[in-house]
């Protein structure tokens, strides 16, 4: 069978599993790219029977390999010590907080204000990691 661009063809879609596609691109007489009629995704042609007769030529795995990323050592920022002279407070948008204040957030738990990030924002250190929260909102 000789297919042309725009022709209906059977090809396996790994995204939705459908087999009805439209030919989008050809390389010579081989089908290079198809578009799924079900989900609209475009991918290379994959015959549903697993044969490779009508597929576009594959590149070697060496040409597809991504360069390995260098490992970056994460150095944690120095933690601000909690201000124990002030009581821990329940977090509220309308309250004002200072560096070192202890807060109790209903989702993130207990935390300590690390820094003022900008107008109406604070960075709080929680056991799950730092979060930026709003404060002094009317």
Describe this structure in words.
With 138 residues, this protein is mostly beta strands. Among the domains are: 8-55, no CATH class; 89-134, no CATH class. The protein has 1 helix and 9 strands. The chain has one helix spanning 61-64; strands at 8-10, 20-27, 30-36, 42-43, 89-90, 102-105, 109-118, 121-126, 129-134. The strands form 2 sheets. A 5-stranded mixed sheet has the order 5-6-7-8-9, with no helix packed on it. Strands 1-2-3-4 form a 4-stranded antiparallel sheet, with no helix packed on it. A hairpin with a 2-residue loop joins strand 2 (20-27) and strand 3.
Question: How is the topology of this model organized?
Answer:
Elements: E1 8-10, E2 20-27, E3 30-36, E4 42-43, H1 61-64, E5 89-90, E6 102-105, E7 109-118, E8 121-126, E9 129-134
Parallel strand pairs: 5-6
Antiparallel strand pairs: 1-2, 2-3, 3-4, 6-7, 7-8, 8-9
